[in-house]
Amino acid sequence: MLEDKNQQRTSLASLGEFGLIEHLTKNIKTKQPSTAKGIGDDAAVLDFKGKKTVVSTDMLVEGVHFDLSYMPLKHLGYKAVVVNISDICAMNAIPTQITISIAVSNRFPLEALEELYEGMRLAAQVYDVDIIGGDTTSSQKGMIISITAIGQADEEELTYRNGAGNTDLLVVTGDVGAAYMGLQVLEREREVFKVNPQNQPDLDAYTYLIERQLKPEARKDIKEILKGLEIKPTAMIDVSDGLSSEILHLCKQSGVGCNLYEEKIPVDPQLISSCEEFNIDITTVAINGGEDYELLFTVKIEDYDKLKHNPNFTVIGHMTQESEGMHLVTRANTKIPLKARGWNAMQEEE
Ligand code: ADP
Ligand code: MG
Fold first, then answer.
1. Which protein residue has the closest C-alpha to ligand 1 atom 27?
2. pTM, 2 dp
3. Looking at beta carbons, which pairs linking 153-156 to residues 24 or more positions away fall under 8 Å?
4. End-to-end CA separation in angstroms for the chain
5. According to the model, what pLDDT value does residue 199 have?
6. Are the C-beta atoms of 86 and 94 separated by less than 8 Å?
7. Position 192 confidence tier, pLDDT thresholds 50, 70, 90
8. Model confidence at 1, in pLDDT bands (50, 70, 90)?
9. Quick check: do 16-153 and 169-337 share a fold?
10. Ligand 2 centre and the CA of 110: distance in Å?
């Protein structure tokens, strides 16, 4: 995981807005050929030379999307960039640039923003995207982060949510549910800490879960892997709100139904043991827990042989005619209607 440090406290007021922008952006350089002009003018200039450009934006609000009591700022910066890059990857495009806008209250010292930016710069480096601009302003309370991600793709590579056809296979990358359980573990530790600050938590059994929550990764690798296998997905989406909610999006937009097989859903061993410990149903977490940032896509049934042995992919179901509806087929072979109970819905239920 990322290192954290917070020693000095330099007040933001002592720098002023321009001083702060200058401080946060002075070491930012650009590398992408499509970046013609980065930070420093009224607007950035991009040149994609005939490629299609994709743009996606997300806003994160303190207290709504993140909680700084267990989210170190460097991780927050990293994650804020990653979740936007994930949206570009979900179009089967390559992320190339981001803009970063922040609003912060004067409760944060400069050092806090430096940590946030360290995480953002690290993510930009790992995913090879240029930071080409943004905006900096103050807020009355808390922190708001808005990131816009830009990417490129050939027109025929772009993959939308609405292309899934009847009989297409439903495929997910990696495993699901771990980020949600990571959050459960972190929230429990926070409660324990409130009661007994001396308590040193032993989190060894949950390292994967916590990493998935605090330092998720976007599947930038999948576009190349699919290309190498000569597979063009028919529809694609990233798993941010939970598998079941994303499947419903694909189905509704494509005008198809779906059977999702419970026994096929890929989960990590740590998810299984922690669900047992917390007495939560594994499948409920796997299909409703969000923030996995894996990719969910459909392929033509003829492509099955090309991907069946690839460790990145699990076929978890298939699409049907729209009239058949959207179902989870359980291990006991009963069909339950799939519901869109995203991550937020789960929170409210508790
Ligand atoms: P303007 O007055 O036109 O909004 P600013 O003074 O806000 O310009 O920004 C100056 C430059 O710094 C611009 O290139 C802008 O994109 C960039 N910038 C401002 N804030 C940020 C930030 N938080 N992160 C990255 N770049 C930023
Ligand atoms: Mg500005």
1. 134
2. 0.93
3. 153/51, 153/52, 153/54, 153/91, 153/92, 153/93, 153/94, 154/51, 154/52, 155/52, 156/232
4. 29
5. 79
6. no
7. confident
8. low
9. no
10. 18
CATH label, 169-337, candidates 3.40.190.10, 3.30.70.2660, 3.90.650.10, 3.40.640.10: 3.90.650.10
Ligand 1 atom 6: residue of nearest CA: 18
Q: Report whether residue 147 contacts ligand 1, using a CB cutoff of 6 Å.
A: no
- Alpha carbon distance 21, 40 (integer Å): 10
Torsion of CA 338, 240, 104, 76, to 10 degrees: 130
Strands (E), 158-294: 169-173, 235-238, 256-261
In short, whether 100's Cβ falls inside 6 Å of ligand 1 is: yes
Closest CA to 73 of 273, 215, 284: 215
For 16-153, give the CATH class: alpha beta
Residue identified by tokens 């992320």 is: 95
Hey, where are the domains in the chain? 16-153, 169-337
> Rounded to whole angstroms, how far apart are CA atoms 234 and 14?
53
Q: Are 74 and 136 in contact (CB under 8 A)?
A: no
CB 102 less than 6 A from any atom of ligand 1:
yes
Quote the pLDDT of residue 342. 52
Q: Residue 207 and residue 149: Cα distance in Å, rounded?
A: 29
Q: Is 315 close to ligand 1, i.e. is its CB under 6 Å away?
A: no
